[in-house]
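Thread amino acids onto this structure.
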């Protein structure tokens, strides 16, 4: 066990597995193949994305699962022995920077979303179209822009699945995309570099903010900063969830460290203007902040902050709003079925049943959520921030797995900003969920990212979560047994 605790051994093992992950990217770059030819559909790792089972695909799948499992085991051990390995926050910061830089060099390989971001940003920056009302396909067919757009490599790289889709996110994200696309000056490779650099910066800032709001507890920065799922989905695949998490953490920083509610609400509103889930945290902070006030004043102050929240959200939308169609992105995403329990219903029972189940689960969540908020609002008992955050986290997990029809692994990142207030058991379960969400990708490596295979992705994820929880429970009982014997 002393060897496992050895600082150099564990950190070296983690780095070795991280480098193993980026080798396909380095080989791809050395061969001189351009980003325009890059397939971010599970084929880039080793094998082609066909449904035909081949030796190459089996090797690719085994390689992915082996590397990710090795990285995850090293991650678990680093978290477990963090006090032995790291003696200062500076050491933690340096190691997170090294690992983040390694993953920065890895090309996107399980998601095409980054090229959707780049193309929509380019369409606004170069051609001046409103991405909420004009898709890239419409832009490329427009006679006014057709000649230039047809040769624009960033627009040409737009994934086919997204080509006819306008922006489905809040207005802060396309504004960021516009700025990043302007910096890239129309060069596809440089644009990818800029977007990845942006997310790398966000990742490091998020680690710092978690470190600060947790009263400089190194373990929480490590849990977030070295989490393989966060590194792969945030830095490698460049998902915009990193930005919403950043604004949530800034809000928590103002709330926890500065004791200021108004800036916290403003930043939560901006986070909601990236991805709408951030609104779920607002009542928990507001009610806690006014916990010592009478219930009547608590309600009055809450309404005042609600006005501020909505006003900031409206200001954000004014950059793009022409009519209420600017809000249809949420419905577009919720109208898709992938990677969720609802897809299983859709494919194996009936689409009608799945649609009814979606509405029923969503209604149930709204009732449960409002019940908890109203209960907190009218309680006369002492309100605890820790308890509030734990209730919020439980509700957020319920929201992710119980209401979203188009579920993706990177959504699980939403759970991480409030880990400093969770129990050790909950944190272990959250880590298990992040690990399971990535291991479940084996189905796409072995076959393809086909619509029907998403149900097996969900089933695999649930099976791995259950398996890891059982193993954890057995270990805990054994540990308790040993402690009892020693006593």
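Threaded sequence (487 positions):
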């Amino acid at each position: 066990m002393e060897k496992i605790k050895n600082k150099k051994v564990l950190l070296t093992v983690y780095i070795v597995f991280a480098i193993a992950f980026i080798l396909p990217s380095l080989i791809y770059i050395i061969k001189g193949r351009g980003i325009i030819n890059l397939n971010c559909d599970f084929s880039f790792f080793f094998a082609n994305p066909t449904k035909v089972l081949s030796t190459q695909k089996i090797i690719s799948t085994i390689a992915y699962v082996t590397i990710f499992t090795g990285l995850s085991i090293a991650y678990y051990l680093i978290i477990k022995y963090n006090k032995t390995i790291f003696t200062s926050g500076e050491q933690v910061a340096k190691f997170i920077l090294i690992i983040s830089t390694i993953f920065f060099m890895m090309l996107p390989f399980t998601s095409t979303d980054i090229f959707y971001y780049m193309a929509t940003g380019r369409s606004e920056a170069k051609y001046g179209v409103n991405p909420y009302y004009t898709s890239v396909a419409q832009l490329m067919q427009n006679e006014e822009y057709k000649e230039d757009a047809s040769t624009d490599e960033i627009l040409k790289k737009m994934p086919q699945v997204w080509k006819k889709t306008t922006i489905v996110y809040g207005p802060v994200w396309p504004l960021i995309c516009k700025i990043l696309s302007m910096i890239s000056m129309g060069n596809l490779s440089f644009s990818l570099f800029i977007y990845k650099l942006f997310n790398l910066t966000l990742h490091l800032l998020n680690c710092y903010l978690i470190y600060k709001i947790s009263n400089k507890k190194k373990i929480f920065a490590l849990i977030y900063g070295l989490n393989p799922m966060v590194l792969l989905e945030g830095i490698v695949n460049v998902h915009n969830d990193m930005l919403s998490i950043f604004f949530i953490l800034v809000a928590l920083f103002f709330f926890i460290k500065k004791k200021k509610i108004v800036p916290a609400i403003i930043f939560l509103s901006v986070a909601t203007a990236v991805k709408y889930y951030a609104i779920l945290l607002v009542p928990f902070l507001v009610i806690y902040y006014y916990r010592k006030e009478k219930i009547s004043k608590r309600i009055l102050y809450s309404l005042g902050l609600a006005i501020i929240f909505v006003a900031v959200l409206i200001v954000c939308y004014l950059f793009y709003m022409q009519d209420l169609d600017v809000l249809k992105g949420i419905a577009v995403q919720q109208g898709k079925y992938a990677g969720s329990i609802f897809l299983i219903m859709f494919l194996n029972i009936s689409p009608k049943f799945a649609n009814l189940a979606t509405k029923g689960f969503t209604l149930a969540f709204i009732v449960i959520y409002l019940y908890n908020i109203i209960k907190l609002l009218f309680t006369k008992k002492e309100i605890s921030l820790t308890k509030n955050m734990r209730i919020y986290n439980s509700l957020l997990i319920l929201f992710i797995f119980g209401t979203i029809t188009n579920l993706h692994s990177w959504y699980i990142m939403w759970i991480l900003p409030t880990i400093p207030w969770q129990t050790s058991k909950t944190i272990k379960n959250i880590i298990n969920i992040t690990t399971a969400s990535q291991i479940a990708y084996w189905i796409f490596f072995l076959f393809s990212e086909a619509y029907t295979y998403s149900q097996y992705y969900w089933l695999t994820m649930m099976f791995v979560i259950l398996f890891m929880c059982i193993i954890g429970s057995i270990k805990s009982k054994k540990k308790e047994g040993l402690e009892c014997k020693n006593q």
